[in-house]
Amino acid sequence: MGISFVGAVQLWIPTVLLSAVIALLVRRRRRTPGLMQPPTMATLGLIAFLNAATVWILGFSRAGLDLRESCERRSGVPFDQKWHDTHYMESQGLFPLHAKCSASVDLVPSWVNPTVIALSVLSAAFLCTAVCLGVRTFLRRRKKVHV
Question: How far apart are CA 93 and CA 119, in angstroms?
């Protein structure tokens, strides 16, 4: 039920290319060396966010347009209509992602939801670090000007 290696590579190619372009643009504009600079932290936060979005899209697309067809034809798992009618709203939310064929079979890989959470937290941490570093740099420059 997992995604193939070729499928994963094809899915992440646009994310990797966009991340590389963003990293190169920030690298060209950066004047001071070092990793702990606001543009670098913001770039890492954006890259983590792009990867979280890519993983979420992967999980969201696992069921396809017709859940019954995805369960029976693609995965070879019987679709339990009675269970689905009772628990319909579980699979309709945007997070956590679920595409359940029955009580025990979920088409969304188990690693998708934790990875989205981890990458989102990492993105928020990088962006908060970028803001804190930016404020600190601004206050230091302001202090040097007024003294």
Answer: 19
Q: Name the nearest CA neighbour of 60 among 27, 108, 105.
A: 108
The contacts found for 73-76 with CB under 8 angstroms, 24 or more apart, are: 75/1, 75/101, 75/105, 75/107
| Helix (H) or strand (E) segment spanning residue 92 | none
The amino acid occupying position 115 is: T
pLDDT (tens digit per residue) in 1-26: 455 556 666 666 777 777 777 767 76
How far from the centroid of its chain's Cα atoms is residue 110's Cα? 15
Give this prediction's pTM.
0.71
Q: Which two tokens stand for residue 23?
A: 């990293």
Nearest to 57 by CA among 16, 116, 104, 13: 116
* Counts of helices then strands in the chain (DSSP H, E): 5, 0
- Structural tokens at position 44: 């890492």
DSSP 61: T
pLDDT digits (tens, 9 = 90+) for 24-54: 776 666 565 666 778 888 888 988 898 898 8
